[in-house]
Amino acid sequence: MNSLLRVGRKFANKILAPLGIEVVRVKNETQDISLYEESARSETPLYINIGAGNFYHPYWHNVDTPNEYYANSQVGRLHVQYDLTSHQPLPFADNSIKVAYTSHVIEHISNVDVEYLFREIYRCMQPGGYFRITCPDIDLEYDAFCRNDEAFWKWPNAYGVFNTSIEQKFLDHFATALTETHPDKNGNKISNSEIREVLGRLPKEQALDYFISQLPSGFQKNYVGDHINWFNCDKISTMLRAANFTAMYESRFGQSHCAILRDKHLFDSTCPELSLYVECRK
């Protein structure tokens, strides 16, 4: 039976790999629970996953807003409803959270929203607590774009379209609504030649900021899967520093300084081949 399951996973992963999805075998929960100091889940949140989607661990609290994509898998797992664009305080006490984690979320919200979130995480974090952030690595993607690396762009765009240009695939990863294949045809679209012209005329970060400045205000509310922002280690570190974090460092896939965050079946599993990992402590 185990051999059949392994063959099934291998076949499924061959099909799903272009989408950045991997089928894995989940370990027995008791093995992971042994890494925690607690003997049961605390009613007061100690471990929070922000923008958790369908994440589940018996000791963690998921922080998210209901959405159609995760409608079924969120049942019983959405512990704290919170809109990351609301600029309302997180519903946690000062110095109460041991570990906070967010994966491929901040690219869906604006700089102002991210800065507010980081300040709130700092407020809620226990001294010595860990905050780990993963998101697409714009430096990695920009370099692949500049060298015209066709093989790098193996996955489809946000709406499942494979046959688009390198220019459109690159734009899709940080300013989705501006792509020519976006389902909303009424908004501003940027052609391949304009993408090349802007990137050739402006320094990298200025060019990236120019593109996201062209996104329609509030548009992402109707297309929650769209990316509307870009990040590299320097940008995230600057934002964390502004939120009063001082101990910041770039990490790697599965290499957290926090033991419970090194479980790759639960953490860091979204598109590791194009992700950035940044960690900090209060």
Compact description:
This protein is of the alpha/beta class and 282 residues long. The protein contains 8 helices and 7 strands; from the N terminus they run ααββββαβαααααββ.
Give the tally of structural domains: 2
Q: Mind telling me the CATH class of the largest domain?
A: Alpha Beta
Q: Hey, roughly how much beta strand do the residues contain?
A: 5-15%
Report the end-to-end length measured between terminal Cα atoms: 47 Å
Give the integer mean of the pLDDT values.
87
Descriptive key words:
8 helices, 7 strands, alpha/beta, globular, Rossmann fold
Describe the structure.
This protein is α/β, with parallel strands linked by helices and 282 residues long. It folds into 2 domains: 35-137 and 231-281, Rossmann fold; 139-221, no CATH class. It contains 8 helices and 7 strands; from the N terminus they run ααββββαβαααααββ. The protein has helices spanning 2-16, 29-33, 111-124, 138-146, 166-172, 192-201, 204-213, 233-242; strands at residues 47-50, 61-64, 80-81, 97-103, 125-136, 247-250, 275-281. The protein has a 7-stranded mixed β-sheet. α3 (111-124) links the parallel β4 (97-103) and β5 (125-136). The relative contact order is 0.15. The model is unreliable at 1-31 (pLDDT under 50).
Blueprint of the fold:
Layout (H helix, E strand, L loop, with lengths): L1 H15 L12 H5 L13 E4 L10 E4 L15 E2 L15 E7 L7 H14 E12 L1 H9 L19 H7 L19 H10 L2 H10 L19 H10 L4 E4 L24 E7 L1
Parallel strand pairs: 1-2, 1-4, 2-3, 4-5
Antiparallel strand pairs: 5-7, 6-7
